[in-house]
Design brief:
It holds the Pfam family Crinkler. It contains 1 helix and 4 strands. The protein is an alpha+beta fold and about 100 residues long. The protein has a single domain, classed as Phosphatidylinositol 3-kinase Catalytic Subunit, Chain A, domain 1 (Ubiquitin-like (UB roll)), CATH 3.10.20. A 4-stranded mixed sheet has the order 2-1-4-3, covered by helices on one side.
Length: about 100
């Protein structure tokens, strides 16, 4: 299994892809994407307060890109911190 590492993931909400809207989450890559969703929700409070974290989808690209599944470990995609200038996680809140 990949070596555990604390990594930085740059995130942006889909539809708000401007640079000033990007935020970084520091997380251990042996955690699952489910925890990352909770951390994103907390970081953006009160924005997603009415949305359960199960309704937040994490994608690898903005245009309906592949989904990072909640029960998968982050290390499956990120063994180390990725390029610090890129966007790594596109947050797709399913608003009702």
């Amino acid at each position: 299994s990949p070596k555990m590492a604390i990594i930085n993931l740059n995130c942006v909400i889909i539809g708000r892809n401007s640079e000033k809207e990007t935020f970084t989450i520091e997380i251990s890559n042996n955690k699952k994407y489910e925890l990352l969703k909770h951390m994103i929700k907390e970081c953006l409070a009160p924005l997603f307060d009415s949305i359960p974290s199960t309704q937040i989808t994490l994608r690898s690209s903005p245009d309906n890109g592949p989904i990072y599944k909640p029960m998968v470990r982050i290390s499956k995609n990120f063994t180390t911190s990725p390029d610090e200038n890129g966007v790594h996680i596109y947050v797709d809140p399913l608003r009702n």
